[in-house]
């Protein structure tokens, strides 16, 4: 009887050990699956962040090139406007010079007229 109880006890202990071992393996498998799922989820996020970073880097480079081109174009526009302003000033200077010459010519014409009239009066006298 004692030996039978001992055998039953040992058999139950072995069953418990087997059950515990099976549950341990299932827990390890479940933990492994969970870990892999978490890592995969994180990898997707990291991959997306990497793709976004590459896009941003490309956009930054493009923006830098465009900003440089815009700066050069703006400098050209400023140069053209300055040249235009200088041309307008020169036109104004030429206009003033032409008025001055015109006034001088009128003065000379009036003086010549006066001299000519004076000669006509002295010839008739």
TrEMBL record:
Superkingdom: Eukaryota
**Can you tell me where the transmembrane regions are?**
none
Q: Which organism is it from?
A: Cynoglossus semilaevis
Family of the protein in this entry: Belongs to the BLOC1S1 family.
* Matches recorded under InterPro entries: BLOC1S1
Quote the catalytic activity from the record: L-lysyl-[protein] + acetyl-CoA = N(6)-acetyl-L-lysyl-[protein] + CoA + H(+)
Region (Disordered), start-end ranges: 1-20
Provide the protein name: Biogenesis of lysosome-related organelles complex 1 subunit 1
List the GO cellular component terms: BLOC-1 complex
Q: Which Pfam family name is an example for this entry?
A: GCN5L1
- Please name the GO terms of the biological process aspect recorded for this protein, alphabetically: endosomal transport
